What we know:
By secondary structure, this protein is of the alpha+beta class.
Amino acid sequence: MTSKPIIAFAAAAATSIVAINAVYAETYQWKDSSGQTVVSDTPPPSNAKNRRAIDARQPSVVSEKAPEKTADGAKSPEGPKTTAEKDLEFKKRQQENKEKADKLAKEQAAEADQKDNCERAKRNLTALENNQPMVTVDDKGQRKFMDTSQRDQELERARRVIAETCK
């Protein structure tokens, strides 16, 4: 007669396990091809729209979503970024900003030099066209006045410099 209590206990345990599994079974919800909402305990087909698992504890989305891509084409990581990743991105932005600032400073300096060269060439051309006495220095460091051919060469050179630098 001892076997009846064991069988009763086993039956009660089996019933409890089935009841527990029913409580924790996942329920799924999705829209089928005709747009009808379907609720079932079996997972939806892969082509179902708006798929999601309904759990008594916490609902979770089952629908598949393509991973987002960043501006450089890399897949964005799942979840929040770590401190190291944030620090690396910050340093990268700092370096890019520094490079932009350096490039801008070089461009501004080159523009200022070009403007200065243009102004000098214009003053030189004005002096040459007004036949003001102009002097050159020879190999020995001696000053010599320009003759007509030298003045014509310098006029041509000044006009060429103006054409190139005064844009």
